[in-house]
Hints:
The chain is an alpha+beta fold and 164 residues long. The chain has helices at residues 10-27, 53-73, 112-143, 155-163; strands at 31-36, 41-46, 81-85, 90-96, 100-106.
Amino acid sequence: MSSTFLEVYEEEFERLAEALRRLRYASNAEAIFLIDKNGQQIAAAGDVENFDSTSLASLTAGNVAATDGLAKLIGEREFSVLFHEGERDHIHISLVAERAILLVIFNERSSLGLVRLRVRRASEELEQIFREISERSAAEADEQSPASPFWEITDEDIDSLFNE
């Protein structure tokens, strides 16, 4: 997954959250979380208050990282979809736009086939939103020109300032 930091503004956050709400409804899921690769929750939808979302996000990111290691051990680039089946609840995990993790928690009211179908469709929308976020971030980075009074200051300059 990409390691670049993206700043998500309110409008983009709302678009991500709305996409998750639609996915939850379409897949009849209990809860859906969008998580960054560092284990931080980006957005969520559904009955999220029933879960420790902080622990869930960090453990999901760890699960994906461990699975990436397993994939590489057997010669695969990655496993883009993970599924965990429980007695009552099930978890579907997928990578989105090479920078986020989509976690869908569902039970007997839905099915793995329905979740997979709806996640595939929602992933396209989420990828488009992330593409737009990346493009905006790149455009903003281009706007930061040498006109800034700090553009030329280096780490060495800062070190020498405090060593005097």
